[in-house]
Design a protein that fits this description.
Length: about 140
């Protein structure tokens, strides 16, 4: 069941994990984004220049719709960003919105940028966070 599943990703994969999780509330108890972002990149090859499709795939803009189902499913969002990461402001804004909608979460801002030094240094913490919130 969803209570025993986590979905996480790194950078663009972190965006993907949040986007999939918000579109399928209850399928995953834990959502993790490691240096991800929450506004879809306006790639014409993916979104075809369609603003509504871009908005529908931007977790920062779809959270309000998904929030009730995420709360019912007891979804926990754990994510981090580097202090020098260009996506830091999106992560901070997303954390603020999670709080506003009453969704359990934890945002960590770690010293560093958008690179493997930061990601390697936080892999164990990510696994521990998921393990603490999953149910058998």
């Amino acid at each position: 069941s969803g209570a025993g599943r986590a979905l996480g990703g790194l950078s663009e994969g972190g965006y993907g994990a949040l986007n999939i999780g918000l579109h399928h509330p209850g399928e995953f108890r834990v959502l993790e984004s490691w240096s991800g972002y929450q506004k879809a990149d306006n790639l014409r090859s993916i979104f075809g220049g369609k603003p509504d499709l871009l908005a529908q795939n931007s977790p920062l803009w779809t959270l309000d719709t998904a929030a009730p189902a995420l709360r019912r499913a007891h979804t926990y969002v754990w994510f981090y960003t580097g202090s020098g990461d260009s996506f830091r402001s999106q992560n901070v804004a997303f954390a603020r919105e999670l709080g506003r909608f009453g969704i359990a979460h934890r945002l960590l801002v770690r010293r560093g940028g958008h690179n493997w030094a930061l990601w390697r240094g936080n892999a164990a913490a990510a696994l521990l966070a998921a393990g603490r919130h999953l149910r058998a």
